[in-house]
Input
Amino acid sequence: MTAPTFDSVSTVTVIGAGPCGCAFAADLSSRGKSVMLYGHPDHRGAIPMIEENGGWLEADGAFEGKYQIKTTSDLYLAIRHSPFIVTTVPSYGQDTILRTLSQFDLRNHTLIINVGNFFYLAARQKVNAHAILETDISPYAVRITGGKVFIKGVKKSLAIWAEPPTTQVERLDAGAEANLRRQVESIFSQNLVWCKNLLEVGLNNVNPVVHCPAALMNAGWIEATKGDFFFYAQGMSPAVSRVTEKVDQERLAIGRAYGLEIIPITTYMNQNYSHECEPFANYHEFAVGSVIHNKTKSAPTSMKHRYLLEDILFGMVPWYELGVKAGLPSPTIRSLIEMASVVSGFDYFEHGRTLQSAGLSEATSEQILMALGGPSDKAPTRALPDSPVNNSLDLHVPLPTPQAVA
Output
């Protein structure tokens, strides 16, 4: 299959009209691209706000201005708008989008999942997209308030991974693959760091490290105030920050077990946000001193927030299971998953994006790594056993009645 030859992309469809989707739309429009923003009929997000403004999206902060945005709740129209589709729906909404996308012929479409959270595990046998790519984290720190999308900050770089060639589409030659990368890079205003495998992207997502300890350890304050406190400066006390750093150490250890050198959390924050002061020495210093993260309070309003339902179900659960496969107990990560299960009233291990749901429960760590794109250049794996592994994939078990709130 020969990809079209051009250096940039003039049209982009964004699936998901929440804060991140709106920030993406404003960013793309500010660079002259034609954007169509899709909102699910049952979850239209900011589309009514844009429609009430005559099709204009007003942005403040990093992308200040008013931008003409096409909107729709008809996925067929959204797919026709552009061969490049960026999804920004939370991970717990990905199954709904995946089921809908599987009804369309996407052989000429590139699907970019932001944030991925191992989306490829669920998608690789469900859609026939020309390419599926995942990023590690949202490009923006953003809120919708007062009829505007307020973009507090823009990350400097994103980790991204493109699926290995599959039997569903014709293999790209080196030139076509390089051209695809240039096209994808023109969609993002951030620097893209291309990863060797999906595991590298999944472990680079710092959201579970940042959000989960603080949400669970501030449960009383969240329920008493409905989130009326500064999540970073007030919620991430020295004790909470120590737990955060312990979770991060376990995340890094899982990466090393698979031959990956993942960036520590404080280093990541220093690299991706501009600060007027010297680089922060530890995570607590960052939480208290970051201007960007303390512009708004940003604390969860309840314990049904995406900081648990997304970051534990689709982040910590696969991390933990990957660690166990590599012989690592990850006790702090496991404790937080179990605590979240008690708080939320359902089993996160059962309903998360597990290896069992991906058909990899019986695989070795080496086989899992190969299924996720192969080893990095730094870490040749041991030879695989002769017996094949069942890599058939099914969607993970749907969530029960608990629903996430903003």
About this structure: The CA atoms of residues 138 and 206 lie 10 Å apart. The first strand starts at residue 11 and ends at 15. The domain at 11-194 is CATH 3.40.50.720 (Rossmann fold).
